[in-house]
Amino acid sequence: MKTRTIVLVTGLLVALIGAGGTLWWMYRAQPQPPAPVAEAPAAAPEPASAPAAVVEAGERHPIEAPVATASAPASLPPLDEADGVVQAALAELLTRQGVMAFLNADGFVRRTVVTVDNLARPHAASRLWPVQPMPGKLQLLLAGDAELIAADNARRYEPFVGFVVSVEPARAAALYRRLYPLFRQAYAELGYPKGQFNDRLVEVIDHLLAAPEPKQPPSVKLVDVKGEVPSTRPWVRYEYTDPALESLSAGQKIMVRVGVTHERRLKAWLSGFRRAIATPR
Q1: Which of 42, 68, 139, 212 has the fewest Cβ atoms surrounding its Cβ within 10 A?
Q2: Chain segment 75-95, per-residue pLDDT in tens
Q3: Which domain holds residue 122?
Q4: Which residues, at least 6 apart from 200, have a Cβ–Cβ distance to it below 8 Å?
């Protein structure tokens, strides 16, 4: 169960990006230009090994240093050497074939951290996702002159959402705490030298929990986007026609996109996970 929960702990928020990205952004012929990543202060020097998780002054939701057990030693390899440990855990959960099909396991911890950090921002660069985009296209319903996201579109998310909610949040949180030093180091590399990644994770969870729940299927419009390189078939994208929805962050757009039933199921899981990793409000 422990190896099962690591994917949910480290990848729940970002897997939403992978699940939704292909359905919202549909590229044709023209390669996608790189999307911006989070702007941050200059990165701190990289530590030689994974630092111990300690309480820093000013942390709102500190994670205490992991306690070693026979099955879960507290020591972890340096972040640059941790891919093997992480990939082995992923392969044990999904089989190696599953990892190859669904995940971008190289640099998984770093990819997770930067994508989580970007979920509350307007863009989350797909080249940094720790998951592969879901196959298929956005399912639309023609309603007069408008195009609506079809109810059937939510069915694509059922396997993923079912997998998420099958994991007990408290067990997921326990494994997250044990592996926290790696995420803390990756967050410091991103340009936050105090490495308070758990504070950012809780903040992003709260942001996702505040995503709207439209009563009606959202309307979308097709927008031509010209790339820097001329093309006879420029890549295009869909946007929400409602300015309030279109102004949402990358993460909140994804919460809306999975459909209100799945959105509520994911919010319930995130609420339970938040209670397990955050200082009570």
Answers
A1: 42
A2: 789 999 998 877 776 665 555
A3: 2-277
A4: 116, 117, 187, 192
